Amino acid sequence: MKIALAGNPNCGKTTLFNNLTGMKQHVGNWPGKTVEKKEGLFKHKGKKIDVIDLPGTYSLTAYSIEEIVARDYIVEEKPDVVINIIDASNIERNLYLTVQLIELGANVILALNMNKYANKKGLKIDSEKLSQLLGIPVVMIEAIDETGKKALIDSIIQFNQKKSTNKLKYGNEIEEHLEQMTEMIKSEIDVRKPDWIALKLLEKDKQIIDKVSKLKNGKKVLFKAKQMQNHLDEIFGEDVDAAIADARYGFIAGLLKESVRKPSIDKMTRSENIDKVVTSKIFGIPLFLLAMYLLFQITFTVSAPIVDWIDRSIGSLAELSMGFLGSIGAPAWFISLVGDGIFGGVGSVLVFVPIIMIMFLIISLMEDSGYMARAAFIMDKVMHKIGLHGKAFIPFLLGFGCTVPSIMATRTLESKKDRIMTMLLSPMMSCGARLPVYVLFTAAFFVKNEAEIIFSIYVLGIIMAVIMGLIFKKFLFKGTSSPFVMELPPYRLPTLKGSLIHMWERGKLFMIKAGTVIFGAVLVIWFLSSIPFGVEYGSEASAVGMIGKVVAPVFEPLGFGNWQTSVSLFFGIIAKEVIVGSFGTLYGVGEEGLIPVLQEIFTPLSAYAFLALILIYTPCLVVLATIKRETNSWKWPAFTAVYLFALGWIVAFIIYQGGLLLGLG
Amino acid sequence: MMPLAMVQEGEIVSVHYVDCGMGLKRRLCDLGLYDNTKIKVVKNDISGPIIITVKDSKLVIGRGQANKILVEEVQE
């Protein structure tokens, strides 16, 4: 048996999904779309029930990819039951989707969620009456606990295929035309659900028009539909789709009049009182900054010991295995592959797993509590200047931890333009892996004002992102910025279970990436550092040494034209955290001995130019691979790699040559 | 009649006409905002987005969009 969960964002859909399936779930993408697909299953009396969590949507128009994904699934995969979860405290708006699910001919069960909140608001819902009026089963549940779970599962199992017979009335005028349209569709073209197609054609649904136009006789049907639209537009004096929406809301209003009792005066809720402070002009920004400070502080304090532990374990594991391989007489190249390549490379990435997981745990708690939406509201004014809106601040914020989750978080943005723009800019938010380079260089060159220098690099990143944002807005993504309309969900206590599952999923995704992309890349580095066989690992005579020497002149104008620096920059594209280590290897000194060596090959000016380059130039391979995954094309990762390299070079050039002109060299 | 962006905090108004492209119009409708809907302005600073209540939910609307929603005062 196959069931699907549908509902508005923030209605508790994912909570119910977690409640039903527990850890037995699989997260992937809808084929060809960057919309998350969650599948899971549970057993009931030996019967296996597959559950699909459809993306959260307000409607089933073709407004967003999420809506298209949801309705395509229902039309094409024909789930046995669609559970429509509804926030009972916001029942009127939520039923708009329900009505459309019924129109679509889905086998809908209505799951009324958050009845506690509804009761607190003074709403009295007569679920039996509602069920009778809608012609579908209605079950009262609380997704966060077991309330109503049994009744819901029973109604799923017992669901009989009898469709809802209560047809929605759109008014005589529209209905007449709908009937004609349906008849015409039945006789002219071969489609599933002709009555729904007729409705969608009258609504001028782009995706359906596209589909129909490709069918035999499709043009004829579209022509007729156009005629009807014009005729109806004239009658109503407004667009016919607006009239249809009116009819839906009218139907819902009638329904609620009979089944819901509402208090005449709206009580001032706790949510509203909190919002008074959180979104206020005076406290809004300080509270936001405090929240961000706590996010980073907690992430790094909590993860530091875990990171240390992983680092040490991998180190000793590497030594152990190298020792073991030595003792059984494995060839030297193999020992080097295991030690330098696999443990060195993959280990340096695994270290980031705890940081990413904890950061996502906290962010997920903030999101579920409802605060993130407020933060987006507060940041909107700032983000607006570069043509993005408030929501885009979340990916940028994550970028200071690691660019990979930042790219993954662009999914929360609705328009593709905003997503891509955010992906192009967020690598300039200096990630945690770049910090060790700053620390090493400031320790070598700017002992007196280390903190200020490091801070200036972070600020430089933000400034460059703003400048590039303005440039992209002007040349790459012309046209008006996408509209900013967002729901502010009521504050709610987040569930730890949901947040933990979310954290685990993110961590898993990252580990899979680290295990595949990085592993392959590490092998390539190791290979290039080792051939021709017999040379010292990563020495001047090795392939990387030779590449370094060829590339070095490119960096000459920036003040660091030696081959070792070029090689470490090359390694930095694999993963930023290997830069410091590779300096050590290339100069044949440990990380402790690096400072005197660096002081010989860099001047303070060229060191600062180098830090600027590290900040901006091509992000690591995992980031590029993530961009590929999120945009479904190689175009954007390629563009990101090239443009950031060029930008980094230009900025470093200006710093170095400008500094020389000013006599700072 | 005036754009929603000009309504004072705390006032209740009724939507007269949404003067924008089909996409945004539909989106607003999905969120419960269409002609004759009563809305309450919860937050309206001089710049930046505004917050309104529509039916039982709170929405943030960009100032640009709020300028395209024409509303009328509601007599109570």
Provide a descriptive summary of the structure in words:
The complex is a heterodimer of chains A (665) and B (76). Chain A is of the alpha/beta class. Chain A folds into three domains: 2-157, 3-Layer(aba) Sandwich (Rossmann fold); 172-261, Helix Hairpins (Orthogonal Bundle), CATH 1.10.287.1770; 268-665, no CATH class. Chain A has 29 helices and ten strands. In chain A, strands 2-3-4-1-5-6-8 form a seven-stranded mixed β-sheet, with helices on both faces. Chain A has a two-stranded antiparallel ribbon with strand order 7-9. The longest helix of chain A is centred in the middle third of the chain and has 44 residues, at 284-327. Chain A is elongated and about 85 Å long. Chain A starts with a strand and ends with a helix. Chain B is of the alpha+beta class and 76 residues long. Chain B has a single domain, classed as Ferrous iron transport protein A (FeoA) (SH3 type barrels, Roll), CATH 2.30.30. Chain B has helices at 22-30, 63-66; strands at 2-3, 12-18, 38-43, 50-54, 57-61, 69-73. In chain B, strands 1-6-2-3-4-5 form a six-stranded antiparallel β-sheet. In chain B, a hairpin with a 2-residue loop joins strand 4 and strand 5. Chain B is globular. The interface between A and B is large, with 42 and 32 residues. Strand 10 (485-488) of chain A pairs antiparallel with strand 5 (57-61) of chain B.
Structural class from helices and strands of chain B? alpha+beta
Q: In percent, how much strand structure appears in the residues of chain B?
A: 35-45%
Distance between the termini of chain A: 73 Å
Radius of gyration of chain A, in Å, reads: 29 Å
Main β-sheet of chain B: number of strands, strand sense, barrel status?
Answer: 6 strands, antiparallel
Give the helices and strands of chain B as they follow along the chain.
Answer: EEHEEEHE
The radius of gyration over CA of chain B amounts to 11 Å
Strand count, sense and barrel status of the largest sheet of chain A are: 7 strands, mixed
Give the spatial strand order of the biggest sheet of chain A.
Answer: 2-3-4-1-5-6-8
